[in-house]
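My hope is that you will study the record closing this message with an eye to the fold:
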Amino acid sequence: MPETTIVEYAQTRLQTWKELPFNEVDSLILSCLAYLRLPLAFEDRVALKDLYKAENFDAMFHNVYSAPRSQALFTALCASPRYRDIQVSRYIQDSSEVQEKQFSAVCFQLDDDLAYVAFRGTDATLVGWKEDFNMAFSFPVPSQLEAARYLTDALPALQGTVLVGGHSKGGNLAVFAATRQTGISRIQAVYSHDGPGFPQTAFSSQPFQALLPKIKKTVPQSSIIGMILEAQEAYTIVKSNRFSIWQHDPYSWLVEGERFVTLSHQTPGALYMNTAINAWLTHISRQERERFFTTLYALLASDHAKTSAQWRKSLPQNLPAILQATKELSPDTKHFLVHTLKEMAALSLRSVPEAINPPFEK
């Protein structure tokens, strides 16, 4: 059977949910839909196929994850008898530079017996980057708290069994939100597609431990994003057709039949990088992590760009300003930044043996 991607899967799977039960590939597809900027208010409820209007495309696919493939996936879903009648509701997009929060979620009622709550991962805004940085030293971050409130409010409005999921940060939000519910009996599964982990103290708590049997985590063979932070859920390794960190791209994950193509091991490079990053995160204090990432973000954002695309486009012109901002750091801050980077490099070298010969496999 040939290996395909989620786009080809959506184009060829025409069965109803009763004929072909929901699976992990469907979860990644709905997680990708959460990146779209839907032309909906929170109180709207429409069939997915009714959103297929060319006049909305520019706004819907603006600054989304891989716009051409996102549009190809959306087109396939709106044409498919499996997906086109999904009811879309409770769409929310809420970002705040002041709160350093980037949050979005949407509910999908697949049929009378099954619903899926999808949380968006990091989008193309710099405030999304900043909240990701904050996750290295702060728990919970604003989007995690909002995800918990969103799921609490959504559950009574949904019919049947409920599934929760997301890609990247969206997977992390899905897991966190589920742990904050008073009862998880209606939640059949929580899907984290290459979502970051959690601080050890949170992971060891009773709510997290109670949810673990329901968590279905998938990561590509060179996963970096999904392996960040000290504590990880058990995971399945998925084959990707891209290289290194670009395997985070959900459109690169390979599908065979109704399942992902899986592998038994991560790449040595990914093991090395993940071991080094997490060793560094545990080696320095929370205050040092906060100072490092706040300084780093201030340098990156010194050209006042609002999105990653603007930042990349303006980098050649604004590189002098970034370098000047580096020079203007106080001697103490500059010393701390250099010292921390040196510590990271030293820990990376010490992590090589453990990465090559990991103590155990998940």
Summary: The chain has two domains: 6-266, 274-356.
